[in-house]
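Need a sequence for this fold. Nothing fancy.
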C-alpha cells in the first residue's frame, strides 16, 4: 500500500547554523538511501519555501491566482515522501524516523488507488 508522508515544520524554528544544517541534510540523505535500499521509496522531494507558492482558486467561471500558501499556519509543508509499504504500521514507523518529526510533524495519508472507478 502506498502512503504519503507529508513533512511539516515551523520555519521560525529552523537554524542558521551551517554545521547543524549539514547534519540534518546528512540525516535526510541517510534516511532516503535506506528507503531506496529497502525498495520502499516511490518518490520524495523537498519543496521550496512558501514565498514561492501560488494558490489557485476557481469559483464559478472566475479563476484567481494568489501569491503564497492557502492557509495561515505556523507549520508549513516542507517536503514529502511517497512510500510503498506492507501496512500503516510500517508507514508510521518510517514517518517517525524523518528528521523533522523531532521539531515538526509528519502527516501519514494513504494514497488513493485511482486505477479503478469508484462505486
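Here you go.
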Amino acid at each position: 500500500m502506498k502512503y504519503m508522508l507529508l513533512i511539516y515544520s515551523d520555519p521560525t524554528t529552523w537554524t542558521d547554523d551551517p554545521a547543524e544544517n549539514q547534519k540534518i541534510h546528512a540525516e535526510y540523505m541517510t534516511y532516503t538511501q535506506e528507503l531506496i535500499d529497502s525498495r520502499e521509496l516511490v518518490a520524495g522531494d523537498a519543496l521550496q519555501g512558501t514565498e514561492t507558492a501560488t494558490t489557485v482558486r476557481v469559483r464559478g467561471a472566475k479563476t484567481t491566482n494568489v501569491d503564497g500558501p492557502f492557509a495561515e499556519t505556523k507549520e508549513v509543508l516542507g517536503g514529502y515522501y511517497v512510500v510503498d509499504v506492507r501496512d500503516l504500521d510500517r508507514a508510521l514507523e518510517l514517518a517517525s524516523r524523518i528528521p523533522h518529526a523531532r521539531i515538526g510533524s509528519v502527516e501519514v495519508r494513504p494514497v488513493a488507488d485511482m486505477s479503478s472507478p469508484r462505486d
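For context: The CA atoms of residues 5 and 59 lie 30 Å apart.
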